[in-house]
Amino acid sequence: MIARRRILAAGALVLAMSAMAHAYLKIGFSVGNRVVSIRWNTLPIRYFVTNRDIEGVTAQQLQGVADRAFATWQRVPGISLSSQFIGFTSSNPVRGDGSTVIGFQARPDLDRVLGATNWVIDNTTGAVLESDIFLNSTFAWSTAANGDPSRFDVESVTLHELGHLLGLGHSALGETQLRAPGPGRDVLGKRAVMFPIAYPRGIVLDRTLEADDIVGITDIYATTETERRLGSIAGKVTLNGAGVFGAHVTAFNSATQTLIGGFTLNTQGEFVISSLEPGLYVIRVEPLDDADLDSFFDDDDNVNINFKPAYYAKLVAVPASGTSGSIEIKVQPK
Amino acid sequence: MTVQGAGCKVQSARSRVRGAACAVRGALAVLVVLLTAGAASAQAPKQQKPKRPKALSFGGVWVAPVSFGTTTAALERPDGSSLVVFRADNDLGMGLGVEASLGFELRRHLWADVTGGWVVSELQTKVSDDVESAADTTVTESLSRFTVEGAVLWYFREKGRTSYFVRGGAGWMRELTGSSSLAQDGIVGNGGIGVQHWWRDNAKGAFRRVGFSADFRLNFRSESLSQVESKPRVSPAAAGKLVIGF
């Protein structure tokens, strides 16, 4: 009954999804012909915190941060989500012990990984049975209210990892440049806590969820009433008539000035961006070239990044409780 | 005590039953008298009230393009400033439509109108300054606006068959996108000035008066599918209509 176990190792938050997401940034996996998204079916999510202090952060501080970060996700309007801190534990955040644990662990081998999340799931229903988050204590950490310029912010990274724990994959709403000298990338800008690359040390901007994060979590945990209020955009991206796999599709609502991202998820180039506020959207498509492809897809060999960014020629109307109707965005080769 | 009424004589307190029967007969008699009086009154010659003039009008409407401002799709840099992905200049293109009104005179020089209208225009968003140098483009969506309004017209000057008026009105609006998948209701209002000329002005006949009216207005809307800010927007408009008076 108990499912495959998936470790999501994340380079500076980067994690590799072991299966394709059904919707834009939900984590899912294939069962026969269908794709199952993962989610917590039993609430509240009961979690422990590893009772281990590191330099600069006590276990109590980590618990306080985890509590705030859970609360940040739970405050998203129109969703049903809750959590409960059970207590401190001597256990490490390792999978398979039946407990959901958040804690620091020294992983000097993962020299680009700030934190990572793994799950144990029921592979017939997608229900999360257990999930663990580790923060790599090889790095210097801080819980200072305004950040510490020489340390990474525990709350920002915990909020990101909790997004994974709740079932979200990575968002591609960000621009980066290759670090010189490498390896790695520097963030020029981003608009999602779930972007796979963290802000530099001392930055606490990722303590606040962005519209893309909110839409993502709403897509998984929306109440029935919320589902009735929201709509979606569906379509496909094609290059010379063939579907484009792995294209990054963004929807921009001028009225709310929000950017929401999604991906084409199959070789037909099809995508769905769900849980959108009704309104008119500008649709933009770009190649997925601002982070490592394996941050988004296991099947990264088939991701096509050889096309020019483009816009869909029409404004797309998203109705309440409905879909835009299928649109086709034709892109040109680079 | 003796009460005389409609031929019924009641001996007080002697017989309550008999007294009650007489009271009913008395009431019926009064009612008959009243009804008779009413009938007589209805038969009296009445002064003919002049018929209140009415007018039916229909024609075309033109609405000027209006800008809804610029918005930016932006990322957040580590220092908190914006990294613009692209800019979006939002406009509502010129609108063309039809309008029909039924008006009636409230009193001399003052008319009330009920108007229904349908205007088609195009939402346009010009996308530019793409962070990855995608070509500038304009994305569009057609828009239909249905309105039902009430208005008051004051004819402030008359010269022969031509009269001039100012108008002000308000009403309800529904906007629909081209696919009708998205709708927005709101409040509309307008104020303007116009002229009306009667080509034909007879005293009798089904269509006693036939003429033309034209007006220039400023329309405002409380909400709109196209608006990027939820504040009323004003747009100039003009209407020309055939008017039939009866």
Q: Would you kindly provide a written description of the structure presented here, covering whatever features stand out?
A:
The complex is a heterodimer of chains A (334) and B (246). With 334 residues, chain A is mostly beta strands. Chain A folds into two domains: 4-217, Collagenase (Catalytic Domain) (3-Layer(aba) Sandwich); 230-331, Immunoglobulins (Immunoglobulin-like, Sandwich), CATH 2.60.40. Helices cover 14% and strands 35% of the residues of chain A. Chain A contains four helices and 21 strands. In chain A, the strands form six sheets. In chain A, strands 1-7-8-6-4-5 form a six-stranded mixed beta sheet, with helices on one face. In chain A, strands 15, 16, 18, 19 and 20 form a five-stranded antiparallel beta sheet that branches. In chain A, strands 13, 14, 17 and 21 form a four-stranded mixed beta sheet that branches. In chain A, a hairpin with a 5-residue loop joins strand 7 (115-122) and strand 8 (128-136). The longest helix of chain A is centred in the first third of the chain and has 16 residues, at 59-74. The model of chain A is unreliable at 1-24 (pLDDT under 50). Chain B has one helix at 16-43, and strands spanning 2-5, 8-11, 54-63, 66-76, 82-92, 95-107, 110-128, 137-159, 162-177, 183-201, 209-221, 233-245. The relative contact order of chain B is 0.15. In chain B, the strands form two sheets. Chain B has an eight-stranded antiparallel beta barrel. A two-stranded antiparallel ribbon of chain B has the order 1-2. Mean pLDDT of chain B is 81; it is low at 1-42. Chains A and B meet through strand 12, strand 18, strand 19 and strand 20 of A and strand 4, strand 5, strand 7 and strand 8 of B.
